[in-house]
Design brief:
Elements lengths: L4 E6 L3 E6 L4 E3 L5 H5 L8 E3 L5 H4 L2 H8 L6 E5 L4 H12 L7 E5 L4 E5 L2 E7 L12 E12 L8 H11 L1 H4 E11 L14 E7 L20 H9 L3 E7 L7 H14 L6 E3 L18
Helix pairs in contact: 7-8
Length: 290
């Protein structure tokens, strides 16, 4: 499946990604409605990674424009107390948005938003305040039922009879494939987290490990080299990098990506969302490293 991904991601200012085929929005920073216009109406599910303002500042207008009975469904980390306050405020300010659905979720959540599509929430280490988990990453997982191997050699009519008698739960096994991963803001904590992911959207705020003094509040981010080193050790098919600090130019970012792709032998297509630029259909652009 070729995904249509539109996004904007600049550290400190705004981050959002819209995946058209899934009708999903990951994070809702400023400008999401202004860029997507009427296309924002296609969004049914909004997954917010954490409560930093650059990841949810656009939620107010998006919800005001698109709230209708049962939609959008907005998911957020259960332990982040900002979201109930936002829900209460927006419903007082724009009463019609009360038709939107707000769901508090935890890292144990596996959300089946369609018969064949599961969203898995994953705790990450961006927000270090305790207690609770206040920052999440997400996986979009395709779920398919496959006939058990021992039944595949039987005649068609017999297979049909067995399924009718025993049901799919006893005659099929579930096969899951990770179609997309979204890191949100996070340091690289687990080199195997994104194993076997077809498209990975990962933050890369800093060019170098020692650049992160710019973030005085202490929340943790990734730097580009650790992301590419992780990807070099994982089965990831396509990589989208974003959330770069606005201190870097396009030339600095592209040169560093190419340098590190060569160093770690990263041969998969690598795309980037540059600071200050919204990018339509990211995967149709020319990869930086090709």
């Amino acid at each position: 499946m070729q995904l249509t991904i539109t996004g904007y991601s600049t550290a400190l200012f705004s981050t959002w990604y819209f995946i058209d085929e899934f009708r999903i929005l990951f994070d809702a920073g400023d400008g999401v409605s202004a860029h997507l216009l009427q296309k924002s109406r296609r969004i049914e599910h909004v997954f917010i990674s954490h409560a930093d303002r650059d990841h949810l500042g656009g939620l107010f207008q998006f919800n005001q424009l698109n709230a209708r009975p049962g939609y959008p469904v907005i998911y957020y980390p259960k332990d982040a107390g900002s979201f109930p306050a936002i829900k209460d405020f927006t419903e007082k300010f724009d009463p019609h948005v009360a038709s939107a659905v707000w769901n508090a979720i935890t890292p144990e959540s596996n959300l089946r938003i369609k018969e064949d599509l599961i969203i898995k929430a994953i705790a990450n280490g961006h927000v270090i305040n305790k207690p609770g988990v206040k920052s999440l990453s997400y996986k979009v997982i395709q779920s398919k039922l496959k006939l058990k191997p021992e039944l595949t050699t039987l005649p068609g009519e017999e297979i049909k009879r067995i399924i009718e008698e025993q049901g799919k739960a006893n005659t099929h096994i579930e096969i899951q494939n990770t179609l997309l991963g979204y890191s949100g803001d996070t340091p690289v904590e687990d080199l195997t987290r994104w194993e076997n992911t077809k498209v990975l959207i990962h933050e890369a705020t800093f060019m170098h490990e020692d650049d992160n003094q710019i973030f005085a509040h202490g929340n943790k981010h990734s730097y580009l080299e650790e992301v590419l080193e992780m990807v070099s050790r994982s089965k990831v098919e396509q990589l989208i990098l974003g959330h770069f600090s606005a201190r870097y130019s396009a030339d600095q970012i592209d040169r560093r990506i190419r340098e590190l792709c060569n160093r770690y032998a990263v041969n998969i297509p690598v795309y980037r969302v540059l600071p200050g630029e919204a990018t339509n259909d990211i995967l149709k652009a020319r990869p930086v490293n090709h």
